[in-house]
DNA sequence: TTGGTAAATTGGTCAAACCAATATGTTGCG
DNA sequence: CGCAACATATTGGTTTGACCAATTTACCAA
């Protein structure tokens, strides 16, 4: 009924592909400036709006960046996050973060509950191992390792729930969130005392699963997420405060905005 | 020297973000058709070229798809990216179906609970509409319409939960399952009496949400899934029986087909 | 040399028009 | 009455031309 017919090729797509090819071939290197739109349009034999649509496509992929009056520059596409669709969503719509944490609360609570009910000996061993590794990683300051260990632990729990979707989704969401946090917030160093609390929470989850106490496991997992959620919110608030403070400092040179709070 | 300066906001970016938000919020659902560019441009108060640039951005992200003369339609890269791989899995490993139903039990239970708590008047209206449509569709024998109405109802509930992930996932899973069922099982005609039961279950969910009874809504949703799960299992068992019987008949003609390479 | 201002450059936006593919309604034939 | 063929309207695709705003560049004066 709908998009069954084959698509008519769009000029903007062809142009975008052409430019993309030039970038990938290396004839347009990162940092290079594209010819002015008017010139480039003539050179490519298309109208300026068509060229602009193509440029917007590339810009949305993060391959180029335009500045009014300045020009259009090729960016280093390795720096931009060209990952999951959700990844960009999270960046663009921070309110999704709250949705995701709420969702994770349900997900990990259920995973812990089922894991406590269903984990085999092999699952248990794996959970033990990842739990120990997590504790080790927490004493170091290597945030990358901490992330990996964290993901591994939760994934082990998720897989011990013996539900394929639950396992994959917990892992995927956790990975997504870690990437996103590291990306948007830089680090979580703002919470120095949180480490020991997190450790205790993980220990509670681990213990409840090992002792085959489903409800306790669910409660522990939910408490864990609640804590992460609250901590993250605080951290984001303080980051926002720092940013406004910095902005205030910058504008201090032009003394018109008095009445600071 | 280059992109340090802060960017001037582009209209096309704002428009793209606006449309993207509508899609994520669910007011523009996958398969929906956008208003014509000329209308939409007026509605948003921008020129058509600007709107087009925004649409191209979304198109390059795979969120919309345009056909000359046909219109612009919302795709859903989020759902497909999460579950395209799952589609094949389901075919290859039927035991995943059980996992999925178990997962859906949790998902839809939570969705119903939150919907009962959080649904706005608009959500309620939509749930009412889809519920009525579902009842109408059930009297007919058009299985495709029944599927669509079923999906629409559950999706309305999922979106009324006001959690983007939950909304998209319920819809995606339901769609996945319906495709899969229709694919693997042909039809569900094996359950003639199930119709009225399903109808009652949907009515229970609908009533609980309308009456703002979260726990009742969750229970009703879980009961619904339990019934579907049980019915489906029965239906599969009988199908398997038919198949073995048929196989037995077939092999009767050529006895001893064993070990040939 | 330094500083600022004017001009040129360049991306951003808009308007109007036309083309081409699609969708829709209508007519006429069987 | 049903259906196919055609005519019309709708809708995305493209172009032209113009103007605005931010940036860069050139130039001139102190």
Shape verdict of chain A: elongated
Low-confidence stretches of chain A: 1-5, 78-83, 247-261
Sheet-strand content of chain A, in percent, reads under 5%
Binned, the helix content of chain A reads 55-70%
- Rounded mean pLDDT of chain A is 79
Total number of domains of chain A:
2
The whole-angstrom Rg of chain A is 24 Å
Would you identify the CATH H-level superfamily of the largest domain in chain A?
A: GntR ligand-binding domain-like
Number of helices, where a helix is a run of at least 4 consecutive DSSP H or I residues of chain A: 10
Q: How would you portray this structure in words?
A:
2 copies of one chain form a homodimer. Chain A is mostly helical and 261 residues long. The first copy, chain A, is built from 10 helices and 2 strands. Chain A starts with 10 loop residues before the first helix and ends in an 11-residue tail after the last helix. In chain A, strands 1-2 form a two-stranded antiparallel sheet. Residues 1-5, 78-83 and 247-261 of chain A have low confidence and may be disordered. Chain A is 70% helix and 3% strand. Chain A folds into 2 domains: 11-74, Arc Repressor Mutant, subunit A (Orthogonal Bundle), CATH 1.10.10; 78-247, Up-down Bundle (Four Helix Bundle (Hemerythrin (Met), subunit A)). The longest helix of chain A is centred in the last third of the chain and has 37 residues, at 214-250. In chain A, a hairpin with a 3-residue loop joins strand 1 and strand 2. At the A-B interface, helix 3, helix 4, helix 5 and helix 8 of A face helix 1, helix 3, helix 4, helix 5 and helix 8 of B. Chain A binds a DNA duplex (30 and 30 nucleotides) through residues 5, 8, 10-12, 36-38, 46-50, 52-53, 55, 66-72.
